[in-house]
Amino acid sequence: MDNKDKPLVTVADIFGTMESRVNPEGVQGVTANYGYIITGEGGGEWTVSVNNGDVEVKNGIHKPQVTTTCAAEDWIAITLGKLDGMSAFTSGKLKVEGDLGLLGKAAKFFHKYTPPVPEVTVADIFGTMESRVNPDGVKGITANYGYVITGDGGGEWTVCVADGTVKVKEGLHDPKVTTTCQDEDWIAITLGKLDGMTAFSSGKLKVDGDLGLLGPATKFFKKYVPASGMEEEVGEELIVLKQILSLPQKFSTGKVMGKFLNALKDKKILANKCPKCGRLQLPPREVCAICVVRADQWVEVGPEGSIATPDIAYYASPDPLTGESRETPYCSAHFLLDGCKDHETLWHELKDEDLPKAKKGVRVRPVWNEERIGAITDIKYFEVID
Amino acid sequence: MKKNRNVGVIGVGQSKYSSHREEVNQPEMIHEAVVAALNHSGITLDDVDCIVHGNMELFEMVHQPDLWHTLGTGSYGKETLRVTTGGTTGATLVAVADQLVASGLHDVVMAIGFEKLQEGHTTGGITNMADPLWARQLQTGALTGMTAADVIEEFGEQRAKMASMKYRIIMDKHAMKNDKAHRRLGLEFDQAEDLAKNSPALVGELRMIHMCSQSDGACVMIFASEEKAKQFCKQPAWIKDHVTVHREESFCIFGEPDYVTSHRYAAEKLFGRNGITDPLNQIDMFEMYDPSSWWGLDWIREFLMLEGDSHIKMIENGDICIDGKFPINPSGGVTASNPIGATAMVRVAEAALQIMGDAGEHQIPKPVNQAMASGFGGTMWTVLFLLTKDVPW
């Protein structure tokens, strides 16, 4: 697999896949020919003929109402979202002749272009395992895991885990448990396209030996990312350096927040009260900042209450605490617990299944985690009381 | 209230705002704006006594960026301060520069705000702003649909949605006149219904089309004492007054009843000490930090101390358009361009350009004698400025 010599994304592929990416709503009611002159290596001329819902992509220029001229590398960058089309137009990288107004509509004609997926090999999956070790996952485990991967791209490997260290060897070496699987299924499982348990249940994946060892194995490695065929397209001296920071942190709670968090272990929610204005603080604070006095009285509130302000998120923002994108939709909300009033709300999450019921005033109760450590996560979420 | 001495804005420079500035590094990008500001003011770096520099360091995670940027700022051998107050950074930079000149410590101060958001992780930065003991699990970015929900509850779904879309389209029409702006979408008013319904939802009724961009860019402003300002510049924009209001608590503003926002509180202070009793008639334009068109809509009422639905009517009647009765954000505002550490400074810079008469294609057609500009950040932080065409004292 030599990706550097053979770029996977080509202008021809972008135009070649257009007809399969038509967005019916986007082309509805539009009839026009769009010409494209893509210059430079890998370029060419195409016409996208839109005829009230039908789209045909032809080679060459055929009576276009609007013609876009652009360098091949810029066209690829625009298609991949690396270059903003409007910026390219503004900066002159993309030139337009003819009816400019037609171009605005063209932005909605096609579904997103997805570059061809680079070939994933079983050898690469095993070859990258040592670099993907999750130290927490392998802690305390000592065992050899054998893998017999059948098919043309298969082979035999042993993953030797010895209390924190991981070595991957070719061939089978005293495995305590051996997994046998077809090459394509193993790739599908690794890429998350096939569920491991489903493969096991359906017989696609067979296990010999100590079955109990396989559970922990799912946490041994960080996610496999296929070697990307899309090398950074950088010209001349311009290089974009990529870095990932991972920053372990720890925070002291102080006595007041410490008391509040400790109470969560006993399924109690404590607010503290300003002796002067009488308002509650939840979570508590050392002083009432408005009255500038110590808030030294404690009141147990809730645990039941009602939704004061629900906020349903549809956008899957990556969670910097885990590196994962959150499942959407989810609902964070400010809850007014019993015994609280006005702005004395507690910020937490609502159970996913209760999203359709997320309305102001709906009664809720906390669902506690079995294991409680004195943290926000001791409350799993709030759920609606039916 | 009277300042020790008058301070005038004598130069503004902005880089092009864009989501893609891979062709320049940070010092190079800042250098573009520094050169533009020097050219605008007609001075050279030798005339500058002190440089204040700032961004939101959590985004790019570069410690002491001002040292690296010395190459692009020209600060070698000059006094330099670094300021970082989150979303309000750009506004605080202006406040600091103004104070440095007003106090008599320096005669000419250059303020630099920048961000290269593509080099950092915006959601990561914002999550790290949240209370580490309670809120980080819940905070995943600056998105919330609460204001949209409140506005819809108060004014009804149809009116609220149409007003926020009209606000958004007006902002885009303004951005189309500003060649520095990042997002210039070419929206038309007849797209309002479609966009309100079909733009992808982010949180609640806050949709992609309502929300601000993530931009790369730098803004530079040059401030001078009255004596120097008059020497270098035909029409400086005078910084008459500014107010900074922070609300300490993150948690105690949600729920019923309504609370006094830091915007309204700041406006009351600013108007009170500058004899403004009728802001709509005494102020000629307003550059507002509007992170989304829902907030923009809602905050007009707060900043102008209006009641009821007068702010909605201002949008419905087109009063906030560049050629309207009370123009807001002729630059296109924050929904068009948002290089965060520069964003709040751009508001003051754009208000100054309007007073100086140098806003180019997005210059307001009527005279601008008094302008207001706001910065926003954190949970509820406000910095509010009053600029004038006449020397204040």
Would you spell out the secondary-structure blueprint of this structure?
The complex is a heterodimer of chains A (386) and B (393).
Chain A: H1 11-16, H2 24-27, E1 31-39, E2 44-51, E3 54-59, E4 66-71, H3 72-79, H4 85-90, E5 94-98, H5 101-106, H6 122-127, H7 135-138, E6 142-150, E7 155-162, E8 165-170, E9 177-182, H8 183-190, H9 196-201, E10 205-209, H10 214-217, H11 254-265, E11 269-273, E12 280-281, E13 287-288, E14 293-294, E15 297-301, E16 305-313, E17 330-337, E18 346-350, E19 363-368, E20 379-384
Parallel strand pairs in A: 1-4, 6-9
Antiparallel strand pairs in A: 1-2, 2-3, 4-5, 6-7, 7-8, 9-10, 11-12, 11-15, 13-14, 16-17, 16-19, 17-18, 19-20
Chain B: E1 7-14, H1 26-41, E2 50-54, H2 57-60, H3 65-73, E3 79-83, H4 89-102, E4 108-116, H5 122-127, H6 146-155, H7 157-175, H8 192-198, E5 201-203, E6 206-207, E7 216-225, H9 226-232, E8 237-246, H10 262-273, H11 279-282, E9 285-287, H12 293-303, H13 310-316, H14 333-336, H15 340-356, E10 370-377, E11 381-388
Parallel strand pairs in B: 2-3, 2-4, 9-10
Antiparallel strand pairs in B: 1-7, 1-8, 4-7, 5-6, 8-11, 10-11
Helix pairs in contact in B: 1-3, 4-15, 6-7, 7-8, 7-12, 10-12, 12-13
Mean pLDDT of chain B: 93
Please give the radius of gyration of chain A in angstroms: 29 Å
Our count of domains of chain A comes out at 3
Structural class of chain B: alpha/beta
Proportion in β-strands of chain A? 25-35%
Number of H- or I-type helical stretches of chain B: 15
**How many helices of chain A does DSSP assign?**
11
Written description of the protein model:
- Chain A is 18% helix and 31% strand.
- Chain A has 386 residues and is of the alpha+beta class.
- Chain A has three domains: 3-106, 2-Layer Sandwich (Nonspecific Lipid-transfer Protein, Chain A), CATH 3.30.1050; 122-217, SCP2 sterol-binding domain (Nonspecific Lipid-transfer Protein, Chain A, 2-Layer Sandwich), CATH 3.30.1050; 254-384, no CATH class.
- In chain A, the strands form five sheets. In chain A, strands 3-2-1-4-5 form a five-stranded mixed β-sheet. Chain A has a five-stranded mixed β-sheet with strand order 8-7-6-9-10.
- In chain A, a hairpin with a 4-residue loop joins strand 1 and strand 2.
- Chain A is extended and about 80 Å long.
- Residues 1-6 and 229-234 of chain A have low confidence and may be disordered.
- Chain B is 37% helix and 18% strand.
- The mean pLDDT of chain B is 93.
- With 393 residues, chain B is α/β, with parallel strands linked by helices.
- Chain B has helices at residues 26-41, 57-60, 65-73, 89-102, 122-127, 146-155, 157-175, 192-198, 226-232, 262-273, 279-282, 293-303, 310-316, 333-336, 340-356, and strands at residues 7-14, 50-54, 79-83, 108-116, 201-203, 206-207, 216-225, 237-246, 285-287, 370-377, 381-388.
- Chain B is globular, with a radius of gyration of 20 Å.
- Chain B is built from 15 helices and eleven strands.
- In chain B, the strands form two sheets. A nine-stranded mixed β-sheet of chain B has the order 3-2-4-7-1-8-11-10-9, sandwiched between helices. Chain B has a two-stranded antiparallel ribbon with strand order 5-6.
